[in-house]
Write a structure and sequence with these properties.
Organism: Liquidambar formosana (Formosan gum)
CATH class: Mainly Beta
Shape: globular
Number of strands: 29
Keywords: Glycosidase, Hydrolase, Signal
Number of domains: 1
Family: Belongs to the glycosyl hydrolase 28 family.
CATH superfamily: Single-stranded right-handed beta-helix, Pectin lyase-like
CATH topology: Pectate Lyase C-like
InterPro entries: GH28_Enzymes (IPR051801), Glyco_hydro_28 (IPR000743), PbH1 (IPR006626), Pectin_lyas_fold (IPR012334), Pectin_lyase_fold/virulence (IPR011050)
Strand content: over 45%
Helix content: under 10%
Distance between the termini: 47 Å
GO molecular function: polygalacturonase activity
């Protein structure tokens, strides 16, 4: 069984991170008005009989407290405060106009009994549980059809105690898909900030069918060998801002999704207008930033900058497959620092994994207008492994100002892709060697919006700069 992270582990990691050369800094981009809001009504979880000894199950206390606070929803909302202690609980629901606030020494612990994580219906854009047919275990902290929800604290902790779930999963003894740590559905005006999330059973933070979501100043940690412990997965959601986060997990740090094959195509809820800034971390088997593989509802208008990934399998990745349909377009990623990363940039057009036999293999995804620029990397094995789909090329891929210290003799491997490049070292593959001349500006997403161009000596080409 994989060892879970403890608070001592987290403090050590954060201390090292704060001194690291890749530590991020700078002004804020996400709006912060809601996270600082003071609710006119507040209660403490102990008022409802909760005991913070790490042993007593407090599910009823959380449920009763939130039921009580619902009476203040139309009176400016309310706050549920969790003081110092170790508060064991099963899954509980949030309500609109609520702040769940944790003391800096508060730890909400997920129950080790799977019966305390009820089974709910599959998401309509997935058609089944992501891992197993049928339903899925509900997240520890859950909500649907909510408005104005804040989950915050003075770096308090929410620990899913996921090692039992990882063990059940690896032994194939589960009957339903594992739960997330936090999932909000069909909700708007969501803020998650100033917290540490540990040891999620499955994906950690999952906003799905949501809008106006801010995730800021959070730390997410699971062991690097823990299965499918993604950090933050915006899914069929729009107007999402993720900023100032440190994530170290067993899978993708951030994975942008929008439904799975025929179910995602039918549900037709894209992920769009997503901002990611000042993100750092490492992943055991995933990517720093991934799009897909479930992207059948479409993904567009993604801007990511100031990213720093180390000791990881992949830096930037797009995953899709015949049968997905949908699209990934208008993606802009810049200011990336990589260290000890196996593959800097990876596109996978044959990812596979289908929900059932009813998907349409002729539903081909559209992948186009992907710009990646201002990337540096040390101790990189492969600069790029870019694999499109035969008969369905990935188009208008633009690479600019990328310098990678690679250890492999074959730095780039490309198939079924087309695009442009400037100032890429080592030299990119033939399908992307055409320089970014002015007549190509409209092909290179976002570069054409910032027409401050520079000529570089000895290149005979033009490179656009944001």
């Amino acid at each position: 069984m994989r060892r879970s992270f403890t608070l001592v582990d987290v403090l050590l990691v954060l201390a090292l991170f704060s001194q690291a050369p890749w530590a991020v800094s700078g002004s804020s981009y996400c709006k912060q008005t809601r996270s600082a809001e003071i609710r006119p009504h507040s209660v403490t979880i102990t008022e409802f009989g909760a005991v913070g000894d790490g042993v007593t199950l407090n599910t009823k206390a959380f449920q009763n407290a939130i039921f009580y606070l619902n009476s203040f929803a139309d009176k400016g909302g309310a706050q549920l405060f969790v003081p110092a202690g170790r508060w064991l609980t099963g899954s509980f629901d949030l309500i609109s106009h609520l702040t769940l606030r944790l003391d800096k020494d508060a730890v909400i612990l997920g129950s080790l009994n799977s019966n305390d994580w009820p089974v709910v219906d599959p998401l309509p854009s997935y058609g089944r549980g992501r891992e197993l047919p049928g339903g899925r275990h509900r997240s520890l902290i859950f909500g649907r059809n909510l408005t104005d929800v804040i989950i915050t604290g003075d770096n308090g902790t929410i620990d899913g105690q996921g090692s039992v779930w990882w063990n059940w999963f690896l032994k194939e003894t589960l009957n339903y898909t594992r739960p997330h740590l936090v999932e909000l559905m069909n909700s708007t005006e969501v803020v998650i900030s100033n917290l540490t999330f540990l040891n999620s059973p499955f994906w950690t933070i999952h906003p799905v069918y949501c809008s106006q979501v801010t995730i800021q100043d959070v730390t997410i940690i699971s062991p690097l060998d823990s299965p499918n412990t993604d950090g933050i997965d915006p899914d069929s959601s729009n107007d999402v801002c993720i900023e100032d986060c440190y994530i170290s997990t067993g899978d993708d740090l951030i994975a942008i999704k929008s439904g799975w094959d025929e179910y995602g195509i039918s549900y037709a809820r894209p992920s769009t207008n997503i901002i990611i800034r000042k993100l750092a971390g490492q992943t055991g088997s995933g990517a720093g930033i991934a799009i897909g593989s479930e992207m059948s509802g479409g993904v567009s208008e993604v801007h990511a900058e100031n990213l720093q990934f180390f000791n990881s399998s992949t830096g930037i990745r797009i995953k899709t497959s015949p049968g997905r349909g949908g699209y990934v377009k208008n993606i802009y990623i810049s200011e990336v620092i990589l260290a000890d990363v196996k593959i800097a940039i990876r596109f996978t057009g044959q990812y596979g994994e289908h929900p059932d036999e009813f998907y349409d293999p002729n539903a081909l995804p559209i992948i186009e207008k992907i710009t990646i620029k201002d990337v540096t990397g040390e101790h990189i094995k492969f600069a790029g492994l870019l694999e499109g789909i035969e008969g369905d090329n990935f188009l208008k891929i633009c690479l600019a100002n990328i310098t990678l210290d690679t250890t492999s003799g074959s730095a780039w491997n490309c198939s079924y892709v087309q695009g442009y490049s400037d100032l890429v070292s080592p030299e990119t593959c033939d399908p992307l060697k055409q320089s970014i001349f002015p007549e190509h500006y409209s092909d290179c997403y976002h570069l054409s919006n910032h027409l401050r161009s520079h000529s570089y000596r000895n290149t005979g080409s033009w490179l656009l700069s944001w």
